[in-house]
Amino acid sequence: MTLRERFSMVFGGALSMFKGMAVTGHWLSHPKGIVTEQYPENRKTLAMHPNFRGEVVMPHDAAGEHKCTGCSLCEKACPNGSISVLNTRNLAGKKVLGKYLYRLDSCTLCALCVEACPFDAIRMGQNFELARYDRSGFELTLNQKEGR
Ligand code: SF4
Ligand code: SF4
Fold it and tell me: Which domain range does residue 109 map to?
């Protein structure tokens, strides 16, 4: 190797190092522009993108009421039988939702059930920590109170 080639190699290496340090220095002085999520330290404040699909959830209002009528359209739309809508009758004899069973372990998070619902009663949640230690934890009842 000639002296010129050695000099070029050392100079190129130093230049590369300073370029890397410049990038590091830039983000040290502009922390608000950093997009890397410091997970799990930021677990409590981490907000997923609005289009993110976590598990299926059934929102309830402050009084514990939901919008589900038990029409079963979501059950029919689900391609792999992850939803079972079990209806019952209230005191007035009207058909109402008894239990809304959802199996997270077979759900592919495709959102076809959400699209099929004419009452906006279910949606894809934002929870991304879906692992469980026990298989029984994947069988969920989404309505809080039976028969409502
Ligand atoms: S997200 Fe897809 S797979 Fe999961 S329950 Fe809904 S329709 Fe079924
Ligand atoms: S979630 Fe929607 S589509 Fe499914 S049973 Fe309830 S109202 Fe019908």
Answer: 56-141
